[in-house]
What we know:
binds magnesium ion, mainly alpha, about 0% strand, 5 helices, binds fe (iii) ion, single chain
Amino acid sequence: MATPQENLIDWLRDAHAMEQQAEQMLRAQSKRLEHYPQLKARIDQHVEETLDQQKLIDDCLARLGGSSSTIKDMTGRLMAFGQAVGGTLMSDEVVKGAMAGYVFENVEIAAYTVLIAAARAAGDTETLAACEQILPQEIEMADWLLQHLPEITQAFLIRSEDPNLEAKR
Ligand code: MG
Ligand code: FE
């Protein structure tokens, strides 16, 4: 058994690892994008938001006396690296990347929804406030990706048809 606060600390550690993975994935995507400036700019904006989120989660963990899990963080980074490397082998990497980004943001939305409920149950108003600040940023990023998937796809298809243009990134 475990107290609400113990579970909360575990989930904050998970969130910390998730945000490390998010940073790695977003940076890898942004670095490779050349012909999709709007997508690249939105990803760069979310890298900055992700760094703020890491700081907020770090502060929550420090206050609760639980350090972040280095092993989980390392695993997350390795997974992000694997995904980034895997993505570059695909001829439609921009489309697959935007799809993967949308999936990842929705995982984050679910994680912060759980954290908000857990912070409430544990009576931890600071963690509650931090997670309520982060959640809308994940929702906005997910919404942006979903809204822009059609035009990213269209731009990719047009470039893909032209033998003189590179389409994948
Ligand atoms: Mg995030
Ligand atoms: Fe995010």
